[in-house]
Amino acid sequence: MSNAGEWLRGEGPHHQIVVSSRVRLARNLRDRAFPGWAKKAERTAILELIKPHVEKLPEMQDSFSELLQDLSALEKQVLVERHLISREHAAKSAGSAVVMNRRQTLSIMINEEDHLRMQSMRSGLQLKQAFKLLDKIDTALENELEFAYDQRLGYLTACPTNVGTGMRASAMLHLPGLVLSELINQVVQAVSKIGLAVRGLYGEGTEAMGNLFQISNQTTLGEKEDEIIARLTKVIETIIDKEHDARQVLIQKKSNTLWDQIGRAYGVLTYAHAMSSKEALNLLSIIKLGIDLGAFPEEKRLPIDELFIDTQPAHLQKTSQQKLNAEERDHLRAQIIRARLKVLPKPDISKLATDSGNGSRPASSEQ
Amino acid sequence: MLCDVCKCNDATVFLTQIIEGKMQKVNLCDACSKEKGVQDPTGFALADLLLGIGAAEEIEKGSPTQRCPVCGFTQADFKKTGRLGCSTCYATFTEALTALLKAMHKGTAHVGKVPERAHRAGELSDKMRNLSESLQKAVAEENYETAASLRDQIKQLESELAG
Ligand SMILES: [Zn+2]
Ligand SMILES: [Zn+2]
Fold first, then answer.
1. Could you state, in order of their start, the residue ranges of all structural domains in chain B?
2. Which residue from B minimizes the CA distance to A25?
3. A248-298: per-residue pLDDT in tens?
4. What is the pTM of this model?
């Protein structure tokens, strides 16, 4: 578990723009109190009933299975930062568990908000594949456990927002082109009109941290799983096209601004000695854009992508092996980034200029 | 600006989410944003949070003292947590939940995956309904031979359903 999951190793389709795809299914046992309402003894009984079936799954043959009470606060936080458990689950203790495969592409939380929260993660745009795996696991489990299901409402969940399919499909998109060209709000507006949710974490104004946006289905009742996924995939493909278009326009019309941004990001990341998480994410986003555009060599992508996770607070704490205050964290973060960026050559702007004419690089490498 | 949740600390995290074309804004203090998990980019806490605020108003419609026979949950508990107590709560509080679900979702009925178990049960109950209808018809038509055979089939099916 010393490395980040396989889903981070940008190899999936459209991986330049779609960082990851994930699908999660919520399931509950029939007529047993949901985890938030169950008393400790019942929660523990439910856990003991479910866990062996999860561990027995062929997909979990090479896996970690941990009771939440056996994990330290730091270990839990590391799992949160790797998106393997939710923040809500990290707050749990006795009566909850997580089982995940070693590749960190599949994680099953027991007694989170629902008795079962099964999550499949993939690099790039692979929602269909992520769902297919979960569907198979769900079918295997439902032969052993009786899930709460209603003919009219479908799968019954602790929160009414998840009832029906119990499915949430989402993709994390990296959209610096749309942000830099101030088109992002337009895209967000358009997408949201069709029942999908887009969210970024907003600081002041409309800038999302690291130019990362998550798009997901908002509703779970009244639409089939594969319809939800097909609709979401189509919308994401449209956003990918818009992002490529925005980047081309930037290269052609605002190249000075673009190279300035990339140069500054490189300069600050290479020389700074204190850096907040927000600043790091925003600057790393620009470096990532630089790699997409050819200003930095492609083979440096993974070390940069890994920094998005490795500079998160719990990962820093884990690296330093001791408790850090905010100031010490900012200092260590800058230190790790400086060390990692040593392998990154200066931005090669000539490369950018020659590539800008036909825009072949971002388009062809992903088709 | 004060935090929308605790209404006492200054808001430091400003979130915008657009659902079905409606822009929703939430301002949270540091503590509440951490507690609600909104700093987790993979979480869906904001949607739940927003719907939770709406849920509290919708749910006032039903009787607050009614209890779920399986888990003892009441509507007042739902108002507090935005979560239900067990799967039977959906049947217990169906009146209050119907409007809420309608407002939240695209449709009012599930059209997705059906678990094999429920699928089998569904088929058997359809079969049962057909047999009972045929039986009534046979009795009405004084077709006693057919009726007797239908009764046998129903008995057989009942034992299948029980098993
Ligand atoms: Zn607050
Ligand atoms: Zn109940």
1. 1-44, 45-112, 116-162
2. B113
3. 999 999 999 999 999 999 999 999 999 998 899 999 999 999 999 999 998
4. 0.79
